[in-house]
Amino acid sequence: MSTKVPQDIKAPEDYPEENFERKWDYARDGSGLKERNHSNTTEKTSNTMLSSKKNQNIIHKIISGFSWKIGLVFVALIAIVLFLVIGQKFASANVKIVLSQQTVTLNNSFAATHNTSLEGVLSYQIVKLQETVTKDVQPTSEENVEQKATGQIVVYNKHNENQRLIINTRFEAPDGKIYRIKKPIVIPGAKGSGDTIVPGSLEVAVYADKPGQEYNNAGIVDFTVPGLKNTPLYNDIFAKSKTGIAGGYIGVLKSASEEDIQTTSQSLQQEIRTLLLSKIKSAIDKENILYDDMVFIDFTTQVPTEVSANGMLSIKGTGLLQAIVFGREELSGRIAEKTLSSYDGSTVLVRNLDDMKFTLENKEEFIFGKQSSFNFSLSGAPHIVWEIDSIALKNDLVGLPKGSMSTLAEKHSSIRKIEAKIKPFWRRSFPNNPDLITIEETLE
Description:
By secondary structure, the chain is an alpha+beta fold. Among the domains are: 90-101 and 385-442, no CATH class; 145-249, no CATH class.
């Protein structure tokens, strides 16, 4: 059987791709090769390919859109982290506090006790300063003399009853030298008991048992009472020198006229007073206050028995200043107690405390060192300002939302008004480190 071979079959390259619309294939059946039209198949295939391509485009768009959103979220997260890091690293806050204040009228009496912790009683401290100045005086006379050294001592009594010492009672210094009193004395009994006992005391002049320079003693020394030895009072009655003991001399004494000595002594006292008052002002720190009525100065003058190398008598003047000072904060609190019915014990400070008029009550009866308590009065118009505890306030502010600042006024009575600036500007709470918070106090 002969086979029919198509003559019009062209090679694929003879059909331009852009003109290709149909596909042909050949199948063998019982009658030989037969061509089969695949136009429907071609259309279906084309539609499938287009649909697949379209789906791929959709998927690509979805994936592209999803990737863009992920990128946007990632960038946003980085920005948030940067904001948090920057906000934490460069965080700071400036807090402006308007302090509570009130001006009142004061005319009240106060009780003060030395180094006390009693409730409602004002405590005071004692400050001591000493200054010595010498001036030369021309001697005008000389004579052979025998003089006994003399000085001031304070006799103490730890017994609870008054103790009487007779004339010429002996007082023995650590080196064994004896000094006597020239009049009988009565030493007040002690107050208190145990560790809080306050010995009674009395100041008196003593004189050396014998004349001579060897009894002179410029230092402060302790004395016992030999006459009380082997008695229970021996340890309870004792003395301490308040001034140096001087003036003991045997030999030719050159001296100046009484008028010259008196004039020189007065000049020395004035110079020493000026020096001491100048020094005490610089010695009192800003935490304490000193009123003029609470300054006491004792003077002693020593006239030498021998001339110095220049042939002059060098008269020595010594001044001992003792002053009573009060703590400003404690005194301010006592003033607030006296003048404010609603005062709750908060820390306050009277800003014009130096302007108050201070008056020592019964001043003519006051002897410095003899009594540990006294009364005084203050009058004026004290300007009371509630003081802020900056450390406590900073700790309360740490991490606090800015909108919660108003609650602090309830906790801190010193706050009348509070404002704050927090950096960076987007932070809504205070830094977590109190050192990054600054407090500015002001009065309106």
